Amino acid sequence: MSSYRYFEEYDQPVTDSLIDNYSNILSTIGEDVSREGILKTPERAAKAMQFLTSGNCQDPAEILKSAMFAEAYHDMVIIKDIELYSLCEHHILPFFGKAHIAYIPDGYIVGLSKIPRIVDVFARRLQVQERLTHDILECINDTLKPKGVAVVIEASHMCMMMRGVQKQNSVTTTSGFRGQFEAIETRSEFLKLISNDLS
């Protein structure tokens, strides 16, 4: 029976450069980079950083375009509670939470899995929550050209929880609305639906 083997592809020159940089960082803060527990940490960190910023190399608009379908549906489509994990660009610490996204089609719908995928693409970059919200909103609006788009993100930020003010229970909410969601009635319907448990 063959042993388990986990394989991921990484750009080797980038990985090697990051390994050197992480080794220097660990040495500078007083760690012994030769001890068993730390020995492979620079390589693990190098690969983790490439994964966590892999959105820089992906085009979210092309992801949406790959699954657009002509459909005469003109009511609200909501995908809520989409998990997201990102890195704050100010401290390179994680922030995490969920996104709620809705759009009102205007001739085209998009495969449901593509909405969470573009959330991941934008989240896997050094980010701030405000820009993340805007990036997702404008990508859907510009690519799908619906009658309206709404995005709400709720996230906890480790830069607030682990350092600085150290407030463990704070949650940051950002939102953006375009088209028909700029009308109070439509926006209120969306906000009510993402707040209610419909099951």
Automatic annotation (TrEMBL):
Q: Which reaction does it catalyse?
A: GTP + H2O = 7,8-dihydroneopterin 3'-triphosphate + formate + H(+)
- Keyword ATP-binding belongs to the record: no
Q: Which UniProt keywords apply?
A: GTP-binding, Hydrolase, Metal-binding, Nucleotide-binding, One-carbon metabolism, Zinc
Presence of the UniProt keyword Metal-binding in the record? yes
Q: What class of enzyme is it?
A: hydrolase
The protein's superkingdom reads Bacteria
Q: Name one GO biological process term.
A: one-carbon metabolic process
Pathway linked to the protein: Cofactor biosynthesis; 7,8-dihydroneopterin triphosphate biosynthesis; 7,8-dihydroneopterin triphosphate from GTP: step 1/1
Q: Where is the GTP cyclohydrolase I domain?
A: 22-194
Read off the NCBIfam families from this record: folE (TIGR00063), PRK09347.1-2 (NF006825), PRK09347.1-3 (NF006826)
User: What is the protein name for this chain?
Assistant: GTP cyclohydrolase 1
- The organism of origin for this protein: Aequorivita antarctica
Q: Which family does it belong to?
A: Belongs to the GTP cyclohydrolase I family.
Q: What is its EC number?
A: 3.5.4.16
State the PROSITE patterns in the record: GTP_CYCLOHYDROL_1_1, GTP_CYCLOHYDROL_1_2
Gene Ontology CC annotations of this record? cytoplasm
- MF-aspect GO terms: GTP binding; GTP cyclohydrolase I activity; zinc ion binding
Segments traversing the membrane: none
Quaternary structure note: Homopolymer.
Sequence positions that bind Zn(2+): C88, H91, C159
